[in-house]
């Protein structure tokens, strides 16, 4: 045995080595001096291995060497010892790695579990020392995962993932990655279910860790949805659905880590003035509120910048994003769904993956919407996930006629008076999400019916109905009733026609660069001054070429324009912010709007009637009607023919003129050198100005600054770039947010939780009295004697205050019976 070996090294006295670990340490310290001992151990290992290979197939018998625990332990110890010595003696142990690899490959399924695990550890050690190629070892590691040994399966799996990650830690090692991918792809297409499952697990883990995010890996994972085995298909579907959710959770974890560390995200766009106002101006309670709002703004802006930088650096790594033929993928998976006999959960996963692919790549799969329509019922299990899939599958390239029957089914089943408030809120929220993607699907009659639910007693239902109104205030205000459009609605705004594409002209944000270079950096003070002076300057500025003479319009129309301009300053559509407002406040605003409209109509009719009477008197006296009255009559007749063009106020025309100027500025490229070619510094400046603009809009949204020109952007948070389908629709966001009444114990628990980080309550004077170290300079100044002029002023103020008190007391009405 090894423990009884006695060896003699040249020139040394006899020394008994009773342990392989001691010999291993001596060989590492003096490789040349212990070379003979190594050769002796190598011959002993060859002898033990030959004995083991004589009876490989009778490993279950009691007389075999493989079933002997002592022999198996001796062979495993010798293998581990030689694995440690291979880097020191490559000339003697060059064939040992391939010998060990061949042993596990041929007899890995028949040897004892303990021996197989220790031989695998020796192979892992050789691979870590780079004594064997991963291309040769990967098939063996994949085969070792097929056994029933859980510890061995975990060891092989973790080593494969970590080894491939180390190969690509600095840069992508394509010469090694492609052969490894071919091995895993072949294993994934194998008919053996266990082998395919292990290959899919390795590919999914490498893709999740951003090691293999190329198109080959993504397509291999997506093609696993068509595997013959349902278990492989379910695993692939589950990974495709959980990828976006995992990315969202990572973003939340990053933001929560920043909060836990106490680090505020550095947003250079937030000015120091806003930070100073939040910390220094106002009372203690108002400062706390402003500080909390400022933190929310900074967190949201930091998240936006983080997502934008991640997309610019790496783009999206979702496997569905890199499918070679997404249309074919969706059609094949839909055919399999139609003939699927699995349980409902599997069908739901397939529907979600199909809808995600349709929305992400804007595919046309018209048969998918009638298939979803069968499941749109309130009593359907997991109905919110089904509705989220229906929302994801809608985009602007889908014909509105294909989705019309589905949305009719949705409204008929969910939105009616006998439905529960939760059901109605879910239905209205889904209608809103679909209309944000396909605005042309809504009809005037249906929108009028849905808008009536804004007066519902249930807050969730009224908020959902108001959100639909706020969407169409920005997308298609002409489709709404007059009372729902809001003040200053632009009836010329319409959604794109079906099939219409917007061609980008120029560079986005170039007008900000021009404003920044000219000094007009969208300062809030300038915006307020412009808004206050709009009414004064409206008469002096030429609006159109055909209206050079301002007196031709008439006094009555000028007054109407002035009233409309004054209203548009203070008006702002509720939009998506209305979800958080009280329904009573919104109803009062609408009643005030209706009263204002009625008063305006009455006043304008009265003015017109008085002017017509004056003109009639002039004509009866024999005087010819003035030229201005003739032009006024022509304007009135043209106003009856074309109300949309002539009923616009001067403020709206100025906005149209400003938008045209911005379009021209966007086309004309401005650069620092003046040559029309933007440099990297120019693009960096554009990004900074865009971040500053977004910060100002966010500050105005949270009430930290005046809205100004950002009022319309705050009202409705619609994605103007058409990126709604890039993100996953969370089913929880479609549910109704109805707060149930809490029990007394729950309320007390929430109160105690809110008191944990709160400072002790006490008067400020009492807190100051606890101060040690003498009085402060501020307290000493208070104790100083005032000068004579100051004392006289204080006495005069107190006397005046007493006089005013006596006057008001004499005039105060005390009722029918006065009391003493």
Automatic annotation (TrEMBL):
Keyword Protein transport appears in the UniProt entry: yes
GO biological process: protein transport; ribosomal large subunit biogenesis; ribosomal large subunit export from nucleus
Subcellular location: Nucleus, Nucleolus
Bias kind Basic and acidic residues: ranges: 722-759
Function in brief: Required for 60S pre-ribosomal subunits export to the cytoplasm.
Annotated segments matching region Disordered: 248-322, 510-651, 722-820
Keyword annotations of the record: Nucleus, Protein transport, Ribosome biogenesis, Transport
Biased composition (Basic residues): 278-291, 793-806
A single Gene Ontology CC term: nucleolus
Residue ranges constituting the SDA1 N-terminal domain according to the UniProt record: 81-457
Protein name: Protein SDA1
Database matches in Pfam families: SDA1_HEAT
Annotated organism of origin: Physcomitrium patens (Spreading-leaved earth moss)
UniProt feature, compositional bias: Acidic residues: 248-260, 518-570, 578-600
């Amino acid at each position: 045995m090894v423990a009884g070996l006695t060896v003699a090294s040249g020139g040394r006295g006899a020394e008994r080595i009773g342990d392989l670990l001691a010999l291993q340490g001596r060989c590492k310290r003096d490789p040349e001096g212990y070379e003979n001992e190594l050769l002796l151990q190598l011959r002993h290992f060859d002898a033990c291995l030959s004995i083991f290979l004589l009876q490989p197939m009778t490993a279950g018998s009691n007389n075999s060497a493989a079933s002997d625990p002592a022999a198996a332990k001796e062979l495993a110890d010798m293998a581990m010892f030689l694995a440690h010595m291979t880097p020191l003696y490559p000339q003697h142990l060059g064939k040992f790695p391939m010998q060990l690899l061949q042993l596990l490959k041929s007899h890995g399924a028949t040897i004892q579990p303990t021996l197989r695990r220790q031989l695998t550890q020796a192979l892992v050690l050789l691979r870590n020392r780079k004594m064997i190629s991963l291309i040769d070892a990967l098939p063996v590691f994949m085969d070792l995962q097929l056994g029933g040994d859980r510890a061995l399966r975990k060891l092989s799996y973790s080593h494969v993932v970590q080894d491939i990650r180390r190969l690509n830690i600095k840069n992508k090692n394509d010469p090694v990655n492609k052969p490894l991918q071919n091995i895993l792809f072949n294993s994934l297409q194998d008919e053996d279910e266990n082998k395919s499952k292990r290959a899919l697990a390795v590919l999914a883990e490498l893709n999740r860790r951003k090691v293999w995010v190329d198109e080959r890996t993504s397509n291999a994972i997506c093609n696993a949805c068509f595997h013959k085995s349902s278990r492989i298909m379910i695993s692939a579907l589950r990974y495709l659905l959980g990828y976006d959710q995992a990315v969202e959770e990572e973003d939340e974890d990053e933001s929560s880590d920043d909060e836990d560390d106490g680090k505020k995200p550095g947003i250079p766009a937030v000015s120091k003035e806003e930070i100073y106002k939040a910390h220094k101006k106002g009372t203690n309670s108002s400062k706390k509120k402003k500080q909390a709002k400022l933190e929310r703004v900074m967190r949201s802006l930091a998240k936006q910048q983080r997502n934008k930088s991640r997309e610019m650096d790496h783009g999206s790594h979702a496997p569905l994003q890199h499918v070679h033929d997404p249309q074919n993928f969706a059609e094949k998976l839909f055919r399999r769904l139609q003939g699927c006999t699995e349980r409902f959960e599997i069908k739901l996963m397939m529907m979600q993956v199909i809808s995600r692919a349709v929305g992400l790549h804007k595919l046309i799969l018209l048969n998918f919407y009638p298939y979803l329509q069968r499941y749109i019922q309130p009593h359907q299990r997991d109905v919110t996930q089904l509705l989220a899939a229906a929302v994801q599958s809608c985009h602007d390239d889908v014909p509105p006629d294909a989705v019309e029957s589905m949305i009719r089914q949705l409204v008929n089943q969910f939105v009616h008076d006998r439905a529960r408030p939760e059901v109605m809120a879910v239905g209205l929220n889904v209608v809103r999400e679909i209309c944000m993607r396909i605005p042309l699907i809504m009809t005037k009659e249906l929108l009028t019916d849905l808008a009536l639910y804004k007066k519902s007693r249930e807050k969730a239902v009224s908020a959902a109905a108001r959100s639909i109104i706020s969407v169409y205030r920005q997308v298609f205000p002409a489709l709404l009733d007059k009372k729902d459009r809001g003040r200053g609605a632009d009836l010329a705004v319409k959604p794109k026609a079906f099939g219409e594409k917007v061609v980008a002209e120029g560079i986005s944000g170039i007008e900000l660069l021009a404003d920044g270079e000219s000094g007009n950096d969208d300062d809030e003070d300038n915006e307020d001054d412009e808004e206050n002076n709009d009414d004064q300057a409206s008469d002096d500025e030429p609006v159109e070429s055909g209206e050079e003479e301002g007196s031709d319009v008439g006094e009555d129309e000028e007054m109407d324009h002035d009233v409309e301009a004054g209203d548009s300053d203070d008006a702002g559509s509720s939009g998506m912010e209305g979800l958080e407002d009280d329904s009573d406040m919104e109803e009062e605003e609408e009643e005030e709007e209706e009263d204002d409209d009625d008063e305006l109509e009455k006043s304008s009719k009265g003015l017109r009637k008085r002017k017509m009477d004056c003109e009639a008197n002039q004509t009866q006296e024999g005087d010819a009607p003035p030229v201005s009255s003739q032009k006024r009559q022509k304007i009135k007749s043209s106003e009856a023919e074309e109300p949309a063009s002539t009923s616009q106020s001067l403020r709206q025309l100025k906005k149209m003129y400003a938008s045209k100027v911005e379009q021209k500025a966007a086309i004309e490229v401005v650069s620092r050198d003046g040559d029309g070619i933007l440099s990297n510094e120019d693009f960096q400046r554009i990004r900074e100005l865009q971040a500053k603009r977004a910060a100002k809009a966010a500050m105005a949204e949270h009430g930290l600054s005046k809205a100004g020109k950002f009022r319309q952007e705050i009202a409705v948070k619609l994605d103007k770039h058409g990126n709604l389908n890039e993100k996953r629709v969370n089913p929880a966001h479609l549910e109704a947010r109805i707060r149930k009444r809490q029990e007394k114990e729950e309320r007390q628990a929430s109160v105690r939780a809110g008191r944990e980080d709160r400072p002790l309550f006490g008067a400020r004077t009492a807190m100051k009295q606890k101060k040690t170290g003498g009085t402060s300079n501020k307290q000493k100044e208070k104790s100083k004697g005032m000068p004579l002029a100051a004392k006289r002023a204080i006495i005069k103020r107190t006397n005046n205050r007493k006089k005013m008190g006596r006057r008001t007391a004499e005039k105060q009405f005390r009722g029918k019976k006065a009391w003493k």
